[in-house]
Amino acid sequence: MKTDHILHGDAATELAKLPAAAAQAIIADPPYFNVLENEAWDTQWKTAADYLAWCDAWVRESMRVLRDDGLAFIFGQLGKREHTFLHLMSRLTQQHQFHDLIIWDRAVGYDERRDSFTPQYEMVLVMRKGEKAKFNKDAVRIPYDAKTIEIYLKDNRYKDKEARKAHLEAGKFATNILRVPSLKGNSREKCGHPSQKPLQLIEKLVLCSTGEGDLVLDPFLGSGTTAVAAKKLKRRWLGIEKDPNYIQIAEKRLENPSEPELAL
Ligand SMILES: C[S@@+](CC[C@H](N)C(=O)[O-])C[C@H]1O[C@@H](n2cnc3c(N)ncnc32)[C@H](O)[C@@H]1O
Known about the structure:
The chain is α/β, with parallel strands linked by helices. It has helices at 11-16, 48-65, 84-95, 146-153, 161-169, 199-209, 225-232, 244-255, and strands at 5-8, 23-28, 66-76, 97-105, 121-128, 177-179, 215-218, 236-241. It has two domains: 5-137 and 175-255, Vaccinia Virus protein VP39 (Rossmann fold, 3-Layer(aba) Sandwich); 138-173, no CATH class. Bound molecules: S-adenosylmethionine. Residues 10-11, 29, 31, 41, 193, 195-197, 220, 222-223, 225, 240-243, 246 line the site of S-adenosylmethionine.
């Protein structure tokens, strides 16, 4: 199977042409359904029921293409008052094996609601195919700063200082709340897609779920964030995208990837 390229077409149709058990990880950031009201790709279904039935089809194909020890990450958000993702999660977790629910903490709020808290997160539903999923917790540790290490080393409860130092220098385990700032309009990374995800966030998903040479598949590639992350981390990748303009953006970006924004 040819990898490291973008397939132009509908996700479910293109996924159906791929061999079973080929991808180690699937990172899917599908249309949300009527959250981005000005984007034709997000308003293409008449009813939520139509949208959910469409999701059933592409997720079923994705799970077929996933390896038995692979993980599938599916992005979703509640929008202003829309909440179709809650129905989608309920439905998908009845059809497939639930693995985790990640909160992507965007670090800043994104809506001016007056009658409730300002929304600040999106969700990533994680599903596995089999009982044992490949997951590298060490690859996504968060480093302690030098000052914190210095303070922690003064804790006299730990007698073996060298072992304690090595432990601290490895960094702490990341929680399932991933805090990565969303991209601002003027961000260096932004390249013309209204729903572009931060490279740093996608890199964490790639790092925890795959090793070098593994295949990462993104059925809704958009501006190519997953492909850029996979290429940088020496994974093979495959993307599907319906809009030729976004394919052009992604291909240009792959030729000349910018550095990711700094984390908060
Ligand atoms: C939420 S965006 C993905 C953004 C991407 N994660 C990024 O960082 O740029 C969803 C993408 O799905 C594409 N899309 C919509 N319907 C599709 C379909 N049926 N098959 C494949 N792609 C589709 C849209 O054109 C849009 O680029």
